[in-house]
Design goal:
Blueprint: E1 5-6, E2 17-21, E3 24-29, H1 34-39, E4 48-53, H2 56-62, E5 73-75, H3 77-85, E6 89-92
Parallel strand pairs: 1-6, 2-4, 4-6
Antiparallel strand pairs: 2-3, 3-5
Length: 98
């Protein structure tokens, strides 16, 4: 299972990046794959990266100045759990994660 702490690969290709605060998830990158990821029927870039934050405040400090939490698509935790069970999720270490 990929649900371990790793560091981002720094790749510039297509990818999906989610952000997490507690049990809430939002899509940060990969909006063009949103429907495919939600439905689980089409091919998506894998693995899906998930950046964990301790608080919404920590997340807001991380977001680019032209983005805010309200501009991100919310992702149902059940979708993330499906990705986790399918071994398609990589949890990425964030600076506040220690």
């Amino acid at each position: 299972m990929h649900d371990t702490e790793t560091t981002p690969d720094g790749g510039d290709g297509d990818r999906i990046v989610l952000v997490q605060v507690k049990e809430a998830y939002w899509m940060l990158e990969g909006e063009q794959y949103l429907n495919a990821m939600l439905l689980g029927r089409e091919s998506i870039p894998k693995p899906v990266h998930c950046l964990r934050f301790e608080s919404v405040f920590d997340l807001s400090l991380f977001l680019p100045k032209d983005r805010n939490l309200g501009s991100l698509w919310g992702i149902n935790p059940a979708v993330v759990e499906r990705l986790r069970r399918s071994d398609e999720l990589v949890v990425v270490k964030t600076p506040d994660d220690g």
